[in-house]
Each structure stands twice: as structure tokens, then as C-alpha cells.
Structure to design on (213 residues):
């Protein structure tokens, strides 16, 4: 079970979406100013406000699609290796369609796609780096489980733990409930805490299981 997104979460995603839209708009503006002829650039000036609004909306939609909780059967298409295939298919379709457009528009689209893929790759690398740091302790065994939203109550936090154990088929017994829970999972004692960090696409939340010895 997932908690509903709060106004703070929605505001952060909106800001990150606007930032991504501004980056895409700036890349297109730089391309036009450097590689497109002066006359063409001047002819495009009246459309600048509309283009900026369009890029902001695009950035917000991309962040929303990237960070929204995916539920039900459709959710499997947006996780793991399936997400990589979806990204490849979409990128290939965009590249194919771009060949039927004027050359300068085609290059703008390809630059935008390259920037989006670069941001996605950097976000993935950052997440892997943080996960390694969180799991890097040698004294205790730690497990970090990504969750979609920040649990706003102790009960919601405990439900996230229950969801994880149910999905992975692990036996769960609560010894102490709370934002720092103590549990017995498959016969092993763990302390579970809420962890959070920021990625290129907004805040990320995780359950951190620390094995007790």
C-alpha cells in the first residue's frame, strides 16, 4: 500500500520538472543561436514564449511519468529491464519520426533526447552510488529497499515493511513498531529506518534494514 503524495512532494516534482524543461529549452536555444542561420533564428523569436511554456510542460510530464507510483499489471512495464526496453523503443520512435522533419528541428529533437537519456543515466549512477554507500558497512549487514513516497505516519511506515516482506515471501514479526522499527525477518533481527536522499529527478525514499548481531 502506498501513501498519497503530499503537497510538498508534488511541489518538489513540479520544481524538478520545470528545471528539466529549462535545461531542454536552453539546449535548443543554444543550438539555434550557434548552428542555425541568423535569419531563421530571428524568424523563430516570436515563438520563444510558446516554446518555453511547451518545454516546461514537457519537463513536468517527464518527471511525473518518471516518479509516479506504478500500480497493477501496467506497473511491470515501468520497472527494471522492462523500463530500459520502453526507453529504447520510445527513443527509437522519436529518432525515426525526426527524419521526416526539417533538419534543424530534427537536430533539436535529437539533442533533447540525448540530454534526457544523459539525465536518466546520471540519475541511475547516482542511485547506485548512494545504494553502495548505504550498503557499504562491514560490521553490520544492511539492505536498502527503494519506496515511491515518504511514509507520513508510523503505521504507513510499518505497512511499507509489510508490503516488502509480503512481496518477497519473507516471514515478518514486529518486535517494536515505529519510524525506527525492530523486526524479526526470516528469523534474523533487523532495525528498520527511513532513509532519504536527492537525485537529479527529485527526492528518493528507502527502507534501510540493518541486521543486528
Amino acid at each position: 500500500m502506498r501513501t498519497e503524495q503530499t503537497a510538498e512532494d508534488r511541489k518538489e516534482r513540479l520544481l524538478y520538472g520545470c528545471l528539466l524543461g529549462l535545461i531542454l529549452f536552453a539546449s535548443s536555444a543554444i543550438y539555434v543561436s550557434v548552428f542555425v542561420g541568423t535569419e531563421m533564428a530571428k524568424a523563430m523569436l516570436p515563438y520563444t514564449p510558446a516554446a518555453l511554456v511547451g518545454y516546461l510542460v514537457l519537463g513536468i510530464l517527464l518527471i511525473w511519468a518518471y516518479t509516479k507510483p506504478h500500480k497493477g499489471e501496467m506497473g511491470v512495464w515501468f520497472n527494471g529491464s522492462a523500463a530500459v526496453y520502453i526507453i529504447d523503443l520510445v527513443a527509437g520512435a522519436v529518432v525515426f519520426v525526426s527524419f521526416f522533419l526539417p533538419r534543424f528541428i530534427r537536430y533539436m529533437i535529437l539533442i533533447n533526447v540525448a540530454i534526457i537519456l544523459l539525465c536518466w543515466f546520471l540519475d541511475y549512477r547516482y542511485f547506485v552510488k548512494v545504494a553502495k554507500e548505504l550498503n557499504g558497512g562491514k560490521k553490520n549487514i544492511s539492505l536498502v529497499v527503494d519506496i515511491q513516497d515518504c511514509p507520513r505516519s508510523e503505521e504507513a511506515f510499518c505497512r511499507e515493511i509489510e508490503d516488502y516482506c509480503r512481496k518477497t515471501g519473507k516471514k515478518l514479526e514486529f518486535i517494536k513498531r515505529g519510524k525506527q522499527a525492530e523486526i524479526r525477518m526470516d528469523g534474523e533481527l533487523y532495525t528498520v529506518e527511513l532513509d532519504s536522499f536527492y537525485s537529479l529527478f527529485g527526492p528518493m525514499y528507502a527502507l534501510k534494514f540493518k541486521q543486528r548481531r
Observations:
- Strands lie at 142-147, 172-176, 180-185, 188-199, 202-211.
- The first strand starts at residue 142 and ends at 147.
